[in-house]
């Protein structure tokens, strides 16, 4: 067992088991983070509606602590800088979301997701978009953080379309001073067009992280158990079996050697005698 090949194999298996344990711990860490986030979400959902500036403050950044808070804001839509958000899916229905900047009294603005338009066929753009109300509008809705796509592009509007709703990206592309974040419409005065569909609330559960952690821990135990099992098999395979005499079956003595030059006396009836006579029984 102490040959280099076995040692390398054992080290690789132990390394894989360690990786599985770390992945299981990572899933438990994500579970803890999700529980904390769910607690903040429940608190924000239960909080009463408040003016946008009172919730976000002068930083004008919608952070984790503000996500799903109900905010009230009054301003005027700038329909000339409206953006269609492509590749959206709401309750297994593909479609588009329409985002329009709402300009506030101080000249700043916030992106308002006015609603969802289901796709009717294979069109790459909405067949028709309800016009934004003119004049002063009061919107009550849920605050959401700016969407991040990692290394994926799509947060900056191009030709009036985008894939993500991102306040800073929209701000630079549209030439507006916008909040970092956006608002989804729950209620609006004047009322929103009925063609728009609403959005479901957040998913508040623990997710699959605990079961993923159990799976990784099981894989680690499986790897270590396999290493122990095959190690025992190798050790047992190197030991001679009990009662097995060298060169013979268990309990049987070695056959006596036949002297060189001795005649074969085990003649059969079908074998002739060396002198031509019949064979012996």
From TrEMBL:
- What membrane topology does this protein have? Multi-pass membrane protein
On the tree of life, the source organism's domain of life is: Bacteria
Where in or outside the cell?
Answer: Cell membrane; Membrane
| Any one Pfam family match given in the protein's UniProt record, by short name | SURF1
Keywords, comma-separated and alphabetical? Cell membrane, Membrane, Transmembrane, Transmembrane helix
InterPro entries associated with the record: Surf1/Shy1 (IPR002994), Surf1/Surf4 (IPR045214)
Q: Which residues cross the membrane?
A: 210-230
Principal localisation: membrane
* Start and end residues of each stretch annotated as Disordered: 237-281
What segments bear the compositional bias annotation Basic and acidic residues? 265-274
Question: PANTHER family annotated for this entry?
Answer: SURFEIT LOCUS PROTEIN, SURFEIT LOCUS PROTEIN 1
Give the family per the record: Belongs to the SURF1 family.
Q: What is this protein called?
A: SURF1-like protein
Species classification: Bacteria, Bacillati, Actinomycetota, Actinomycetes, Propionibacteriales
